[in-house]
Amino acid sequence: MRFFYLIYQIFVFLPIFLVVTILTAIIVIIGSSFGNGSFWGYYPGKYWSKFVCILSLCPVTVKGKENIDPSVSYMFVANHQGAYDIFLIYGYLNHNFKWMMKKGLRTIPIVGKACESAGHIFVDDSGAKGILKSIRQAKKVLCNGMSMVVFPEGSRTLDGNIHRFKKGAFQLAKDVNLPVVPLTIEGPYKVMRRGTLWLNPHRLTLTIHKPIQINDTLSTDEEIERLKKESFEIISSSLKKNE
């Protein structure tokens, strides 16, 4: 079975994936140039992601849709299992958002330009000025139901386990008074783990947890630490529950 999937991946999946990805990026770039970035920055990517999951023969399960309101802005934080996290969240979260992504992704031909046109936030962590600029950009887009998705681990896991969260996303949530919504991702590590180019079809599961509201009675540092700790515990507990 694995041999046949390998043949399928090389001669069916890969050519179609490349063509559809380029077409989607072009649509985003052209569409965004006419305005309404909230539409062109979200819907083409959403349907591209759904198509990729289907094309990969990876069934998807979503839990907790009822926990979020499409008209409310949130800070979504998720564990980072692999490249397919992108397709799972983009395709199935069903909430308009912007990605907070590494600055280096901007250099990817066509795709990087599409991400820039769509209004996603590139994080420049090379110095204090770069970080401050990224935070200012993020604050501008977090309104009127527009949300943000961040992987607080920073990088994809190497061993499939969840690792320590950085505080950036939680500090931003506190600064702009946004509820934090933990997302538990399961499956992408088994589909395409970091360091490999080959796929293994596997079920993808996205669990949307209840929002964690901002507590204004705590100091900034205390609140950031609380949000970070609570989000980590919710996500890791959900992972252990489903092992």
Would you give an account of this structure?
With 243 residues, the protein is of the alpha/beta class. It has a single domain (58-113, 120-241), classed as Glycerol-3-phosphate (1)-acyltransferase, CATH 3.40.1130. The chain contains 9 helices and 7 strands. The protein has a 7-stranded mixed beta sheet, sandwiched between helices.
Say which CATH homologous superfamily is assigned. Answer: Glycerol-3-phosphate (1)-acyltransferase
How far from one another are the termini? 25 Å
Structural class: alpha/beta
| Name of the CATH class | Alpha Beta
Order of helices and strands: HHHEEHEHEHEHEHEH
Spans of at least 5 consecutive residues whose pLDDT stays below 50 are: none
How does CATH name the architecture? 3-Layer(aba) Sandwich
Q: Helicity level, as a percent range?
A: 40-55%
Count of separate structural domains = 1
User: What is CATH's topology name?
Assistant: Glycerol-3-phosphate (1)-acyltransferase
* Number of discrete helical segments: 9
Shape by Cα distribution: globular
Overall residue-averaged pLDDT value: 91
Briefly, what is this?
With 243 residues, the protein is an alpha/beta fold. Helices cover 47% and strands 14% of the residues.
